[in-house]
Amino acid sequence: MLSFLSPFLIQLSGCYLTLAFTGARPAEFVDGERKSGNDTCLEELFPQKAIGAFGKDKDRALDENSQLLQELLAQETICRGRPKALCYEDILLMVVRHPDTGGNVLAMSIKFIYHKGADNKPKPTIFFFTPTRRLIFCLISVIVSLAGSDGAFAATNLTSARQVFQVKNQGPVKCTPLRWKKEWLKRPIFRRCDDSLPEDKPDDLISKNELDDVVSRYQPLPYYKLRDDMTH
Questions:
Q1: The pTM is what?
Q2: Of 85, 141, 175, 223, which sits most exposed with the smallest number of CB within 10 A?
Q3: Please, are residues 191 and 208 in contact by the beta-carbon 8 Å criterion?
Q4: Assigned domain for 41 exists
Q5: Are 220 and 31 a contacting pair, CB within 8 Å?
């Protein structure tokens, strides 16, 4: 559907739409962490402590289920083992049956696990999307195009946006989730874009000089790069 555009332009469009529709900070879906290099002074002055399950709201009365959920969210923040950016596992694509027309509609939800104060909230911040009339404003089309280009869909027959939008619910089923491949769950949606290096080159073999010009299947798009691209 958006195959005539370069991956860079599709990703930039996705960043614009995400900012516009959610009001989220850029650091919630691209890599906003500042690199401190080999200097350990920062860690010595401000040691990283485990995030508490209650934070400043520990005196607020919560039921047992809410307390358990907060503890799980806090543990998830510490032990995610993934880039600090929007990843495939944060996005749920599904084909739902329209309650009035009975037609099949592709819907999407995005969970921001790095939303400000997310670890102190009993429920995660989730946004829901449906297709728009104008393709230029359709965030679902952007995500589907990127996922198809990455080959991230678990179903082997979903290799293009057209095939994804043709998926229908079978029989009385009202919702059909479109699942991701396991190896793509913790990979970022918005990543560095360049086709100069082979895809199978490990990220740890990328030199510092190459870093800004490399396409990576693992490294998220850094905030400074998004900021520079948005000013041009």
A1: 0.67
A2: 175
A3: no
A4: no
A5: yes
